[in-house]
Amino acid sequence: MKRWIPLIIFAVLAGFLYVGLYLNPREVPSPFIGKPAPKFVLPVIGQPGTTFSPEQAKGKVWLLNIWAPWCVSCRAEHSFLMQLAQSGISIYGLNWKDKDREAEALLNQKGSPYIVTVDDLDGRVGIDFGVTGTPETFVIDQSGIIRMKHVGPIDEAVWKKKFEPLLGKLEKST
Amino acid sequence: MKLAVLLFAFALAAPALAEVAAPNADDPVVEARINKLGEDLRCLVCQNESLSGSRADLAEDLRREMREQMNAGKNDAEVISYLTDRYGDFVLYRPPFKPVTYLLWLGPVIFLAIGGTIWYVTLKRRRKMQDQIQPDSEALKKAAALLEQ
Amino acid sequence: MIPELGHFALVVALLLALTQGILPLIGAHRGNATLMGVARPAAQGQFVFVLFAFGCLAWSFLNGDFSVENVARNSHSQLPEIFRFTATWGSHEGSLLLWTLILSFWTVAVTVFSRHLPEDMASRVIGVMGLVSVGFLAFMLVTSNPFLRLIPVPPDGSDLNPLLQDMGMVIHPPMLYMGYVGFSVAFAFAIAALLSGKLDVAWARWSRPWTTVAWMFLTMGTALGSWWAYYELGWGGWWFWDPTENASFMPWLAGTALIHSLAVTEKRGAFKSWTVLLAILAFSLSLLGTFLVRSGVLSSVHAFATDPGRGVFILAFLGVVIGGSLALYAWRAPRLMTGGAFSWFSREALLLGNNVLLLAALGSVLLGTLYPLFMDALGLGKISVGPPYFNAVFIPLISPVLFLIGVGPLARWKQASLPDMVSRLKWAFAVALIVAIILPFTAGGMNLMATLGLFLALWILFTILIGFAERLKNAQGSLMQKLSSLPRGYWGMQIAHAGLAVGVIGATVVSNFESERDVRMNVGDHVELAGYRFTFQGVKEVPGPNYVAGRGTIEVEKSGSKFVLHPEKRIYNASGMPMTEAGIDYGVFRDVYVSLGEQLENGAWTVKVYHKPFVDWLWGGAFLLALGGALAASDRRYRIALRKAEKASDKLAAKGATA
Fold first, then answer.
1. A134 is in which domain, residue-wise?
2. Same structural domain, B91 and B123
């Protein structure tokens, strides 16, 4: 009977390996799901003297999009974000570690999907949110709780699969 | 002559101008703590490197945060929770001992126990074989006699 | 044209491999000599075509043919010639071709050195290896064709990863693959035994040298990888328990257990079932390693570009090979149960204990490597398992093994006496322990981990000397005559075990007593470390063949001895990738290691200086391990068997001629 054990162990292992093929070992899951968004106050780009804090967005469901002018994938998702903004989705941007100060010019040139975008020059707020790269997008609900984190650019397929159902659920529970 | 003396004095003084190199870090004690903790932490943007060994941007930023925390008086455990609060257990190279990792930490002990059992059982079986094969002294005497012939 | 010829050669090789895999196995099953006779020519033909294909790819690289996608992705016009050649195996596709080439090379070796085997056994062994070749060739042709063309042809390539532009790339992968792939021979022998239902002492005698040689290559390949990481990555680390490192360490652990199990099977006819299972395990782990590195399942510094489609193919291949062989084992294993009796304190029992511990260690490394995947797959979150886990788990498991190395070779087969052993070894134990406790005090104070490592190493060395002394006591002649009368197998064992002890000393001393300083240096500044005085003389810009280097000059001095080190910070032209090259002064008792950090104002730089005592003993020990293996594999009794077979076939040929 115990001569079958090696084969059984292998079969179980192979099962896990198969599942593993469709996972991403480097994607860092967020420990903030279900927890309040970290507090911050940051200056707004393009509006000197103004600041923004998540408090100000309470009462609605909104997206926090972590981006940077030097990030290639961010440019890829830019046009889709513009579409979302036009269809009424509230998107706020966080300009992450923009050492060359290119954000304002870029947004003026290509248009901004953001209600406002804040400037996180030293990346500290990004660290507070557990950001490891760009683009990353957080979905935050009416009471300021983080409901989802998406790593990577958003496109039609990702929106329909991950975001739309969640936003639908959150809007209903108002 | 004066010139020679002057030059000579200058030559003697020259090594004194080159200094003992200053440590790269402002506070070597804090730096040593960061290096030690950082060896057991993952650089989150590298393929598989420690926070101490990595030269990546985010790694520099995280070390900077650790430095600030330590300068503010936090101890090692607090600095580590600062990171796990933001990045989860994924940032730890030493997996925590939680129900979900019991199997990981106890696995080696279990393997050893299983191995030990196999060792013991195999030996018992072999020893039994030996006992059964043990020839009796009668047979031995007969064999000896045969050999003599 | 040439790439297409190479592609065609692979197709022909696949057809030959299919022939080689299927016909001889049928022949052996039916006792059909004609079918069995297909094995050797088919295998040799396959080798010719795979070698030709490899040559076509190498030619494309050497001539910078960027119309071949693989060349465009991994080479560059400025790449020095030697690295253009090694870039042939610098990618996923190229390294697969290398795997396949080495597999067919081992197969040809088996065709040549198997004349003394019964024909059905030889056919089965070659046949099984042929089936494995089919898998790799099919994998290449279906998912990973190295000869794909790239249209439009780019003006230049993307360059080989700078980390790979090093002599290490010339030897490390080929050596490693010789080891991984070499275990396929032991595997094939095991399958042949299961298929025929026959597993006797002769089988162990035949398969043992093949296994030892493969193990020897794997030892060298792994050690070279460690050394390469040490001098290339810039911070002097030599083992990180990275998944790819584990992928080569696990087959090594299984292979070590296997060669010891084979010893018992050969000498005493016992452990047959264990030996077969270990042979399957060692090669399975080689294949698993191949999977892990190419499938994107684990995150590793070493991983090739990932693709789930390829991963599925390899996984299916693994399923067939490993699943198939384990099923065969489960079905046929009961026939293998035999073997002599032995007491609880005997060499067999100690070797069994050794293997149990090695497998527990292996299991733990496998568990740690795959646990993040298990958790993620079950949706339980993501964790990392790194050096702290592996060191915490591996050291306690390997320490008893190291202790047993001192006792095993001195124990008699079947029945040894514990009181006798204690009296022979008590002084060695005491002296080793005392020296191990005292030595760390010369370097700062008590250090339990250092004591553990030093005790085990000294224990092994002392028992080796005792072994020689006891063995020579009853020998005849002068000391030289006595020593040369000892069989090579004995020398091999002792030297290999000594190598392990040397390696343990290296690991113990460098881990516990290395030191470093991280400083800001202006030109002329100096820093002291471990009695050495390092003086920074600035960094000069120096162009290289395909990079621009900031070449530092650091003068190092210590009580009389003086030398200069030139660490570099390079930027490669094609990719813009930065790379640090450490400046190292190698020495028997220490390495002095310097690396550049960042440039500051006024020509100042941050510099890290390291003192690494006894670090080269790590690789020196590995070399001795491999040397021991080579000696053991070339023992008289294997060469006699070969010579007898040659004489026998000569006789038959002569008979045939005269008839």
1. 33-172
2. no
